[in-house]
Amino acid sequence: MSTVPSTSRREWQALMRAAAMVGPRRGRLALSIILGAGSILAAAALLAVAGVLISKASLKPPILTLTVFTVAVRGLAMARALLRYFERLASHDLAFRVLSELRVKFFERLVPLVPEGIGRMRSGDVLSRFTGEVDTLQDLYLRALGPPMIALVVVAVIGVAVAIVLPAGALVLVVALVVAGTAIPALALALTRRSGRRQAPARAALTAELVDVIQGAPELAVYGRQAQWLERVQAADSRLMATQRRDALASAVSAVLSVLVSGAALVGVTAVGVDAVASGRLDGILLAAAVFLTMGAFEAVGGLPDAAQKIAACATAASRLEEVTDEPAPVTGPTDPRSLAGGGPLVADGVGFRYPGSDEVALRDVSLELRPGSRVALVGASGSGKTTLARLLVRFADPDSGTISLGATGLREAAQDDVRHRVRLVGQDAYLFTATIAANVRLARPACSDAEIVEALTRAGLGPWLASLPEGLETQVGEEGAAVSGGQRGRIAMARGFISDSDHLVLDEPTAQLDPAGARGLLAGLAADRSDGRGMLVITHTVEGLEGFDEILVMDAGRIVERGRWEELVAAGGAFATIAAAG
Amino acid sequence: MSEAPPRSARSSVDRRLLRSVRAARLPFAIAIALGVLTAVLVVAQASLLGRVIAGAFPGGDDLADSEPLLWLLAGVVVLRALCAGGFEASGRIGAGRVMSELRSRITSHLLHARPTGLRDQRSGELVSTAVQGVDALEVYFARYLPQLVLAVLVPVVILAWIFPRDFAAGMILLVTLPVIVVFMVLIGLGARAATDRRWRTLSLLSAHFLDVVRGLETLRANDRAQAQVETLARAGDEYRRETMATLRIAFLSSLVLELAAMLGTALVAATIAIQLIGGNLAFSAGLAVLILAPELYLPIRMVGQQFHASADGLAAAERCFEVLDTPATVSVPEAPAPAPDPSRSALVLDGVAFSYPERDVPVLEDLSLRLEPGEHVALVGPSGVGKSTVAAVLLRLLEPAAGRITCGGTDLADVDPEAWRRRVSWVPQRTTLFSGTIAENVSFADRSAPREKVEAACLASGLDRVAAALPAGLDTQVGEAGRRLSAGEAQRVALARAFLRDAPLLILDEPTAHLDANASSEVGEAIERLAAGRTTLMIVHRPALARGADRVVELGGRA
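YS: structure for the whole thing
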C-alpha cells in the first residue's frame, strides 16, 4: 500500500541522521554518483557530438575531417554503456552495504530496549514493524538520495556547457530542469499523499468486508446470504475504484506537466538558438548540439518523482524507527561492574515495581530466596505479577524499591550480561529461531556438544519425540517454530535452560501448553531431579505436581499472600488450598 | 518482495491475465489509440526540429522566418503532453477495472464454491491476495502492458517514416532492433533468474533479521544479543558478496543492450554524415533521423525497466488464480430434488468418508449414523477426528468423498444445497459477527423477520441480557469496526440466529468449546431450550458435555 504521510521536520531530521549513520560510505556514494551522472552525460554528449558531426557534414567537407567526430561518437556510445553497467554495480553494492549496516546499527540500539523498553503493547507487532521500516531504508541511497544528487551534477555540467555557447539558452534549460526536478516531483508527491489519504478509508472498508466474507463464509452459506454479501463487497470495491479513478486523473495531470516542461525547454532553446545563429552570436554548427543537449538533460530529472516518493517513505521509516529507539533504556550500567563469581542464593528483598506510566502497582514488597539446588514455585492467577518478577530477577528492569542480589552482589552492581548468564530466564513465550533443534538449544551455551543437547532435551521430556524424528537434532523447527507444537516449543526452551551454565533457572509457565497429565509430570520431575546444583524458580498456574517443591509462593495482585510447603499450605486452608482442591 | 513465478508458469499466467483485460476493453483501446498517436507525434516533432535547425543553419533563417514552424513544434509538444496524460489515465483506469473484476471473481468463488471457509492462518493471506495482491497487478496493467504496446507501435511508425528518406539508417536500426529485443528477452528470462536471486537474497536477509529481532528477548535472556550483531553483519556481507557476483553477470545483458542501442545511434549518425557529404540526404531529414534513433529504442528499453515490477504483479496474479482454481467443495445438482424434511424422516449417514486434498490422511472414514426425527444425538470424540467435518457435510458445505447422506430416501447430493440448508440451524464453534448491529446480526438468519421475532429470539437465547448492558442495546454496532463481543456473547448471537431460523434440524458444533464455566452453563441452558422438539446433533469433545442427549456416539479413536 502506498500511503505516503506528510514529511515533517522531525522526519527530515530522522532521515538525515539515518543517512549520517552510514557516513563512512561516502567514497562509494561519490563513485556511484559520478558513474551515474557520467552515463547520462555520455548519452547527452553522444547526441550533441553527433549533431556537430552531421552539421559539419552538411557543409560537405572532406570526409577525413569528420573522423575525429565519428570516433568520439562511438567512444561516447561505449562509455555510456560501460558507465551505466558500473554504476549499477556500484549502487547495488552500496545498497547492500547500507542495508546491512542499518540493520546492525538499529539492532544494537534495540537490544537494551527488549523486552521492557518497547512499551507495553504487544512486542511482536512493534518488532515486525521495526524490521519492516529498516527494510524500507534500504532504498535510502539507491533510489532516494542518489537520483537527486546525480541530477544535480548533470544539470550543473550541461548548464555550464550550454552557457558557454548559448547563455540565454542555458537559462531557459536550467529553469526548466529545476521545475522538472523540484516542482513536478513535489506535485507528484502531494498527489500521492492525497490519494493515500483518500483511499485509506475505502481500502479499510473493503478489507473489512472481505474479512467478513472469508471468515463468515460458512455462515453466509448456511443462511443463504452469499449474493447479498457479494454485493456488499462489490459496493465497497466500487467506492475504492472511484477514488482510484480520481487519482488516475491526478497522475495524468503530472504526466502532462512533465512533457510540457521538457517540451517548453526544447522549443525555447531552439528559438533562442535560431536567433543567436541569425545574429551571429552562435556558430551554426553548434545549434543542433545545443538542442540535443537539451533533450539529453531531461533523462537526469525523469526519475525524480519516484525518488521523491522514496525520500518521503524513507523519512517516515527513519522517524518511526527513532520513535522506538529513542525510548529510554529500562536498565543502564553499571559503569564499573562487580564480578558475580561464586554464585550463592538469588534473593529478592522487599521488591516493589510499577510499570512506567501505569497507575497500578505491579509488585509490592515481594521477598524470596532461591538457594542453590532448591525448587521454589510461584503460583497465582494471570496478571498477579509473576512474569514481572521473573523479568526483574534477570534485570530486564530494575525494582522501584527493595533489592535483588545474587550471592553478596546486588544485581545493579554487576554487568548485565553477567546477571543473565548466571540467572537464566526461560520466558513464557520463548522464541524458537528458524533453524534446527540443535541450533536452538545450543544458543544457550554455544560450546556444548550434541550429546549434551540430547541429554538436555531428554531432561525436558522430549527424548521419545526426538528419537522419532528421522533427522533428529537436525530437524528444522520451521519459521518461528511453526513446525513444532506449543508443548514441544516450551520444552525446547526449557532444554536451553538445562544446558546453560547458569547458577539459577527461572522457568516462566513451562506447563502453559501441556495437558494436565503432562504438566503434572513435568513439575513433579523438576522437584524430584536434583542432580544439578541449580536453584529453580518455577512460575506456574497449575499446581498439581508441586508436592515435592521446597517452597511455594502464592501471589495475588503483586503481593505474596501465602508461602510454605504443599502440605503446610493445604493445611492452612487459604487461597492455595482452594486452587489445589479445584485441581 | 515476492517470488517471481517460474518461466513456464509466467507465460500461462500472462495469457490468463490478458484474458481478464476484457473487463476494460474501452480504456485499453483508448490507450492503444493514444500510443499510435504518440508515435506519430514523436516523428512529427523530430521532423519539425530538423526543419527549424536546418532552416537556421545552413539555411540562414532568422527567428521570424522560423516562427511558424516553432509554433507548430509547440503545438506538437502540447499534443504529446495530452497524449501522455491520456495514456496514463486510461492505463490506470483500465487496470482498476480489471482489478475490480478479479476481486469480484475471487469473492464470488469463495462464497459459492468454497463455503467451508478457510483455516484461520490462511484467511489473512487470502484478504491480502484479494486486496494488496490484486493491487500489485496495477503495475502490470497500468505500466507494463501499455509500455509493451508502445514498444511495438513506436518503432514501427518511426521506421515507416525513416525508410523512404534514409534507407541506410533505416537498415541499421532494423538490424539492431532484434539485438535489442533478443537481449531484452534474455534479461527478461535467463538473466532474470539472477535478478530474482537478488530479491530472494534480500527477502532471506530480512526474514533472518525479523527472526533475530523477534527473538531478541530470548537472545538477551541467554546472553547472545551481542553475538548476533556480528552474525548479522557477517550474513549481510556474505550475501552481498554472493549476490554481487551474480549481478556482475546478470547486468551484462543490459550492458549489451545498452551498447547495441548506443552504437546503433552512433552508426546512424555516421551513416547520415556520409550521405550528407554525398548529397543523398537533406540535412533536415538527417537531423530528424538522428533524433529518432534513440526514440526508437527508448520504449523497448522501458519495457525492460517495468519487467521486474510486472513480475511482482504476476506473482500476485498467480496467487489470485490459485484461489480461483481451488475446486468447489460442493456441487449443485442440475435437476434438484425437493428438500426432504428431517422432522418427518430420519437422517441417515451411510459410510460417509472425507479427506482434505492437502492432507494424506482421511479425516472421516466410513461413518454411519442415524438420526430419528426429534432425536438428540451427541457425537463425541477427541479433537482432530473429523467432528467438524461431519457438521460441514451435513450442512452441505462439503461433499462427502464416499458414502451418502439420505433423508426420507432422498440422497442429499440430489438436493439443491441452499434448499437443504434452509432446513438446518447451526451453532458453530466460533461465530462470525458481521459489521452491523446486533439486531442485524440476528436477523441475518431471516431477513424478513419482523423486529418482534428478532427480539423474541434474543430473549430465548439470552442475548437480550448481553444487549441490555450495552449503550445502544440491540442496535449496538459489532464486527470489525464495532464493539468486540466476548466468545460467550458471540455464541448467544449464533443461538439467537438458530432460534429465529426455527429449522427442524439443529447442528451444534462444540458451541461451548471456547467459553468459561459461567458462560458455558448459561449457553447450555439456552441450547436445551433450542433443541427441544428438534432433531439435534450435538458435537462435543468430552462426554461430560453430552448431557441431555438421547444417545451418545463415539467418533474416531484414530491415532
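YS: worth flagging: The CA atoms of residues 205 and 235 of chain B lie 8 Å apart.
IM: good catch. Also Confidence is low (pLDDT under 50) at residues 1-8 of chain B.
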